[in-house]
């Protein structure tokens, strides 16, 4: 990642890149000229807290509207939550009195649409409400739930004491014809972690068919696992962050290693901060720009996030991926779980830079007193007590990646910053 320096001429007390990275004044938002940049918004902590929109976000979106109330800049919403896209689009639309299409909303699982090789396989879907509907929207056509597995194999879930009583009193019937699980799709944390953890380990130890104990639990070929959303915590209405899907994954990884002695292997990691999500977001913005009538390719992305270890790391990883891909012919050495699959449906990759914009309205709490003369704002929520890494195991801990290109107090200040950068009158 390039060096990030403080610009004294900027109004915000944070970081910005050298102006040579951005084409100043090249695209006037006057209705007669296409823009060649797009904006990506995280939702929780940036635009809203829980179901309540933030006032600065309302002001920011108003600046992006034309006289008819439509967006003047191609925009997408990138969240690690797991909802139905049309529900979230409707919610965002109601918050800001703005037309929002489902395709503008990218949830943690959304890029799994690119993983076509798994779409027809018997897939166990882990999550909560609408998990089967979400999986089917992604293209997975042969799905089941953990409840289906429990019904087929009643003796597996003995951490559920009610199930113990049911089996003891009424007996049980297994279904040996229940199809083998070919792939596990983890789209979000389940309701009953203990039961899901138990049965997931059972399936991993038996190659998806838990009818007999493995001969050697330390040497079992692992069925593919796709995990969406690695967030350890997220910010909602509570006074402090809540456990996210990353916490559930951490439990699964620890149990698997404790029992088998091996590291759990992910076939694909999907969701922020992985590069595949930002690539899919670029594709979405390019598609929206084309629908708006823009003829210029998208050259710059601005990504607003509130979590340095997720949003900002992801945007900076993608910025590095773009630059190394362009100069080294895609030679950058990514872990297998983070590779971006070739897909003919993706718009051409044209973005030359991804600018990370950190806001102080969510997970991250800015401490101006920690700024140095050269602009070294701390971006780790625990930085004063030691560097505690909250990221996923398959994403190397590189503290420099958690530093944004620009810190802004809120998203409204950020939109004003972008307009100045792009030479847009407002």
TrEMBL record:
InterPro entries the record matches:
CDP-alcohol_PTase-I, HAD-like_sf, HAD-SF_hydro_IIA, HAD-SF_hydro_IIA_CECR5, HAD_sf
**This protein is called what?**
Haloacid dehalogenase-like hydrolase domain-containing 5
Q: Where is the composition biased (Polar residues)?
A: 371-383
Q: Which organism is it from?
A: Aplysia californica (California sea hare)
Q: Where is this region: Disordered?
A: 1-25, 365-390
């Amino acid at each position: 990642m390039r060096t990030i320096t403080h610009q004294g001429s900027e109004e915000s007390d944070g970081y910005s890149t050298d102006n040579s990275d951005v084409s100043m004044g090249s695209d006037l938002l006057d209705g007669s000229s296409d823009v060649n940049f797009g904006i990506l918004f995280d939702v929780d902590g940036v635009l809203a807290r829980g179901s309540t929109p933030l006032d600065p976000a309302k002001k920011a979106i108003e600046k992006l509207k034309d006289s008819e109330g439509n967006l003047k800049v191609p925009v997408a919403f990138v969240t690690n939550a797991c909802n139905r896209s049309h529900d979230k689009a409707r919610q965002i639309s109601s918050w800001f009195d703005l037309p929002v299409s489902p395709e503008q909303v990218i949830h943690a699982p959304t890029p799994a649409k690119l993983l076509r090789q798994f779409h027809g396989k018997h897939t166990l879907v882990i999550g909560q409400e609408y998990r089967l509907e979400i999986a089917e929207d992604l293209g997975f056509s042969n799905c089941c739930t953990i409840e289906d597995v429990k019904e087929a194999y009643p003796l597996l879930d003995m951490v559920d004491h009610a199930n113990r009583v049911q089996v003891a009193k009424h007996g049980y019937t297994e279904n040996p014809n229940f199809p083998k699980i070919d792939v596990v799709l983890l789209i979000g944390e389940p309701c009953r972690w203990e039961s899901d953890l138990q049965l997931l380990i059972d399936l991993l130890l038996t190659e998806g068919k838990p009818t007999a104990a493995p001969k050697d639990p330390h040497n079992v070929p692992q069925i593919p696992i796709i995990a969406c959303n690695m967030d350890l915590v997220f910010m909602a209405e509570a006074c402090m962050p809540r456990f996210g899907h990353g916490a559930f994954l951490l439990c699964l990884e620890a149990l698997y290693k404790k029992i088998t002695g091996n590291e759990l292997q992910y076939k694909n990691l999907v969701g922020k901060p992985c590069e595949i999500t930002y690539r899919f977001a670029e594709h979405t913005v390019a598609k929206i720009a084309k629908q708006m009538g823009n003829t210029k390719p998208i050259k710059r992305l601005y990504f607003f996030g509130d979590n340095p270890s997720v949003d900002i790391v992801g945007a900076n990883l993608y910025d590095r991926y773009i630059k190394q891909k362009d100069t080294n012919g895609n030679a950058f050495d990514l872990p297998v779980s983070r590779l971006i699959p070739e897909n003919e449906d993706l718009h051409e990759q044209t973005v030359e830079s991804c600018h990370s914009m950190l806001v102080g309205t969510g997970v991250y709490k800015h401490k101006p007193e920690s700024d140095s003369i050269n602009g070294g704002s701390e971006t780790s929520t625990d930085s004063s007590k030691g560097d505690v890494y909250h990221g996923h195991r398959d994403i190397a801990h590189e503290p420099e990646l958690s530093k944004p290109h620009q810190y802004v107090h809120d998203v409204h200040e950020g939109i004003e910053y972008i307009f100045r950068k792009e030479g847009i009158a407002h």
